[in-house]
Predict the structure.
Amino acid sequence: MLHKTQGVVFKYFKYRDTSIIVKIFTREFGIQTYIVNGVRSKSARSRIALYQPLTLLDLVVYRKNGAEINRISEVKCNHPFQTLSTDIKKTSIAIFLAEILYKCVKEEEEDVSDLFDFIYHSIEMFDHINTGYENFHLQFLLKLARYLGFGLDSPEEHFLTVDPEELNILKTLVYNSYEEGIKISNAQRRALLDQIIRFYKVHVETLKEINSLQVLKEIL
C-alpha cells in the first residue's frame, strides 16, 4: 500500500554495485529502512544527493506490515539546501548530528510527530542562518534531549561538573532560539560538547563511539 509522508535522511549504506539501503526518519512511521536500486549508477549519479545526511524529503512509499525493508515509489527534495551542502562547517555539523540522531532515535517509537517536527524545522532553520551558527549543534542537542525523554529544564541539575560561566552558557543555549547569537570561545565550545555527549551517553546506551566527532572538533 502506498503512503505519502515527509522524511529526514539519517544514513545510507552501499548495497551491491549500484544500490543503497537508506535509513529515513518519517513523520508517519518513524524510522524506516528503504532499498533504493540503481541510485549509484553513472546514469543516476545526481539522485544520490537526495540521500545525503539530513536531506528533507517528500516521499511516496510502499509500506507492508512486518517488512523490515520497504521501497520508495516517489521522492523529491522538499527543501533544497542553500548553504548546508556548500559550507564546510555546516556540512560537518550536519554529518555529526545525523550520526547522533541515527544512534539516538529509537526505531520502536510510535507517535513521533513532535520529534519529527522539531528535527525538520531545526534543519530548515540551520540552513537559513548565515552567521553565528557555530553553536547550532550544541543548542540542537540540548533541545533534542527533551523530545528523547531526558530533557533539560534545569541544566544545573544535570551538569554538576561545569564551572559557573559554562553553566550560564548552557542555560542560554537551552532557552535561546537558534537565531540569537551566543559568543563562545572554541575552547568553551569543545568543552561543552564533551559535557553534552557525556550527558547523552548516560541516557542512550547505543551512543558509544561517534565517528564524526573528531572531524567536527577540527573544523570548529
